[in-house]
Amino acid sequence: MMTQIACHRGARLSAPENTFPAFEAALAQGGDVLEFDVRQTRDGVLYVMHDETVDRTTNGTGPIADMTSKEVDALDAGAWFDARFATTPVPRLDAFLDAFKSRAAFYIEVKWADCDAIAQIIHRLDIAAQCYTCSFSEQMHLDMLRAAPDVAQMVHWRRATPETLIDKFDATIVEFYACDDAKNDFTLENVRAAQAAGLATQVYSDAVSPALFAQIRDWGVGCLNTDHVSAFHAFRTSQ
Ligand code: G3P
Ligand code: CA
């Protein structure tokens, strides 16, 4: 089994995160799954955006939830990263999914949005089988489960166990966090426990480490969620 690559906000080291150029770069670098974040405007339009405010990743200011879709569509989400990306828009969720559905799977992280509206888009585009969702919000998890029970749910291992939240959310995928501090939960014991429970496995890490990459391969992890798409793709294809 070759470990899949989930591209964290696209190839965000190469292009402005959560934009079409970042997702194009992610696939060009060998990515399989596009990870992105969903928020919505005051008038209920869904967008691909990580932060609660537009300040860091656009030329605007303020919470996206307080803005209209007309205001968000007018934002520049690329110039902050590099002048050559100037005028890159904030993607609308429906246009983004439609544009990439024939070439990628989707890891949908719901930050805060109307999950019925997300589910309507998924079902209209007939892409439920190539999507999985996750959220740091318990309410968003439960809303997605109700609105789209045909979409796989992922939970973070550190916030769940097979006996508790995994059951509650009907999750079939768990994500481990591989890092150098106390938050690390990517251990062989944990991975084997997840696999024994029949769960698919994913690791999130911002490290470029041959030792980590080898563990991911040797422990049979299904997917790496990373900023370093080309580095892991080079590792897995060199084996
Ligand atoms: O699975 C969580 C990981 O994708 C991190 O997401 O939105 O905190 O960068 P975020
Ligand atoms: Ca995310």
From TrEMBL:
CDD domains to which the protein is assigned, alphabetical: GDPD_AtGDE_like
GO molecular-function term, one example from the UniProt record: phosphoric diester hydrolase activity
Domain of life from the UniProt record: Bacteria
Domain GP-PDE: 3-236
Coiled coil: none
GO biological-process terms attached to the record: lipid metabolic process
Protein name: Glycerophosphodiester phosphodiesterase
